[in-house]
Fold this protein.
Amino acid sequence: MKLPTLKGVATEAKLLLIGVPVLIWTLLPVYHMFLFSISPKESAFGGKLWPEHPTLHNFEVVFGQKHYYLSHFWLQLWNSLLIAVSVGVLTLVVATGAAFAISRLKVRGGRTVMNLALFTYFIPAAFLAVPMYKTMGTYGLLNNQWALILAMVTIASPYSIWVLKQASDKLPYELDEAAKMDGASPLQLFRLVYVPLMLPSLVAIGTYSLLLAWNEYLYAFLLLSNDRQITLGVALGNFLAADDSPWEILMTVGLIYALPPAAIYYTFKRYMVGGLTAGAVKS
Amino acid sequence: MASVSFKNIEKSFGSTKVIHGIGFDIKDGEFMVLVGPSGCGKSTLLRMLAGLEEISGGTIAIDSKVVNDVESKDRDIAMVFQSYALYPHMTVADNMAFSLKLRKAEPKVIEERVSRAAKILNLEPYLARYPRELSGGQRQRVAMGRAIVRDPKVFLFDEPLSNLDAKLRVAMRAEIKSLHQRLKTTTVYVTHDQVEAMTMADRIVVMHDGRVEQIGTPLALYDRPDNLFVAQFIGSPAMNVINGTLRRANGSAHVEAPGGPRWPLASAAGTDGQAVAYGVRPEHLSLAGSGTPGTVAAEVTVVEPTGAETELLLTAGDAQIVLVSHGRPTVNPGDKVNLAVEPGMVHVFDQKSGARLAA
């Protein structure tokens, strides 16, 4: 075994010196959320690092919908999921098509359209919320989950198009030419060559837009108002309307709400690696 | 099997004209090599034939049918790209079958053709592998296999060997040539390597700056280059070219070069006093005994033995000369020698136009 060199130890130490505080900094709020969720109501603010009588009672309340604010917990969780997945899928369809047209088919004016779309990011999304509300009202979509889905797709698309366009630019153009010579129509090229090769980027963008919709509060709050249609995130916000907020329940739901994104991230993490195009061309 | 004909082909990118009216015919079954330095338009010409570039002017015909407005997939041609352009997410077998699947061929036909191509190219053990698991030479063969399975009218090769190492390049060169002899498919092959062109071609088209300099069989180009460009481009090591003045006196002629040497001419066109370029290939020079009439005095600067032959770098007058000797001359740098020129193996070009002076 090789003995560690002084320089190696010093580097390691420096990394730890930065890493440990960052880790604590990141995990501390999550830990407190977890503490709340396993504490009885009385001792929730006890200020201890571990409750004297840890309990799963809060989870029982949440899963059993045994609280006034949680009477539609499962429905609202389903709403969140449905909306997030729809946004992910729709954004992918829009952004992949656009990136393919701009980057591979080199549609005239494609770049201009992309830059114009990116331009919308100069205005904070929060400022666009009211105009968006009015637009949805004009089309009679208020209180309809489509309103939120379309709004989130609008917000997620420009960035997604840009990322996918950059990724497609890296695919060797000879592949398109080879497919063209082999007799592929643009649609066949898209389906049989482009999409399979873009898969890692598509997974990344799909996850991004899905999580964006999952975590959205403002637009969801504005565009949906019926208790049976709102997302769980909005429902959580309603907790704060009460004078005596049930913090331990709120934190329990928060913890549950954070689990799907974590699961999604870990499921798709391995797809997000590059290297799929290895062997296509010699560079 | 098909003939190809280019008529007055022009190509512009924006306002830049890169091909200026090229026309020639390729016979059925012929192996035609387009060769020239980079930027001469050879790849562009090939890509126009492939249908990957618009044709700005003139017509391209395959089997006498003008294909200017025919989509590349309907031209019945297959192309092997310099970068191979294999589909990385498909196995070798799927790569080769892709075009047939797009054409909705019967699975039985696909399998039969793929296995035939794999057999020809020795790819049978690799059919289930992915391109990333193959070596450069194997990838190159898969790219060729993808072309073969289609049984196209014309094969196009765009510098297919330039990504391979020198040894593999020589092997693949022979493989492509034997493939052509076996399949007898009309082939257009683009390269910047004149050795590749010489060894593989039935006929060569030498291109330069978007124009055709000369078309002919490899040996015809070598023996009788039409102009200075072809003379210097074809052959390795390159032809010695000495600028000088043509002198005629009493029925004999020579070229007087700066620094004094008089290069002998057996017979020559051109007028007395004309500025000419005197060309002689390194293997047509030899060392002669001192005092032999009609020789040129020179000084050895470098001796490069390669075993089979020896390359001498010499200075004659102001000119640098290369001599290739099949023997092993006993000379050393600094030696004064006399160079004999093989009669009838001299090429004289007009200095200004570069055109060959008929002799």
